[in-house]
Amino acid sequence: MTTIAIDFETANERRDSACAVGLAWIADGRVVRRESRLIRPPELRFAPGNIRVHGILPADVRDQPGFAAVMAEFMPDLASGTILAHNASFDIGVLRASLHACGQPAPPLAYLCTVQVARRVFPDPAGCGLGKVAGRLGIRFSHHDAGDDAYACAEIALAAMRETETADIGGLAQAIGLPLTRVDGGSPPPPRPARGAIAERALRSFRPAVPVPLRFAVRGSTGNRYEVTLDERSGTPNLRCTCMAGRHGMRCRHVKALAVGDVTDLLSDNAAELARVLGLLAEVQ
User: Fold this and answer.
1) How many Cβ atoms sit within 10 Å of the Cβ of residue 212?
2) Mind telling me which residue stretches traverse the membrane in this protein (predicted)?
3) 22: which of 114, 189, 209, 232 is 20 to 30 A away, CA to CA?
4) Do 178 and 245 lie in a common domain?
5) Contact 54, 9 (CB under 8 A)
6) Which of 44, 59, 98 is nearest to 278 (CA)?
7) Is residue 190 domain-resident?
8) For the chain, how many structural domains are there in total?
9) Which tens digits make up the pLDDT trace of 69-87?
10) pTM score
11) Which pLDDT score, from 0 to 100, does residue 25 have?
């Protein structure tokens, strides 16, 4: 049976916003194959906090294939084998939610969480996060790179197999009293009905108050400093820039970047406020 470690990175708080996947296959007591792919999420809305974690920007995935196309070659192994993931509830949740977002049913899956494995085999008061366990075991990898994270996850499982003198993942699970978690397949949920005009107005009336104006300092291509401001005077939130294009009413590249969470050229220290603005913009899209 195939054993495959998986790790996803996401663009924002939604489980169906995968922007990268890493996979590592285990056979004969070692990692025999590694793959990593960038994924274009359904919407190019990147939360600044997520960017700070994995460093992936909207520009990196704009021309990449979507989830279904990227995962097509891997789904037979995932559906028929045993999946490993560190904090598996997150990665399995991303997999299932993203399949549903693509209109595809999620297959039955069997998985083992290497956080739980580490807590039983390599307990430590410092905790069992991926970086901490890998550091204690001498596993060298680049944290929050999806491919490297999947590799580290696989190596943790292999180290646990050696520690417990078990031959495979099934034997490891039995030895430490941690059975595989199995989730049934399921059809995608029905599409959400479109909002009507009345519902849209009601939603806006309950929108949380946001301090106005909100300003974001950005760096221009020649190093000039511009301000992008949240403008709600028309009743619909918009971002407006003080650059030449913005002053002529055009949607400049600075606005386009911030509108999808790209903070590469953000100079002001208010990325948290940008995350709130992105939520407002998403409501009216």
Assistant:
1) 12
2) none
3) 189
4) no
5) yes
6) 44
7) no
8) 2
9) 999 999 999 999 999 999 9
10) 0.73
11) 98
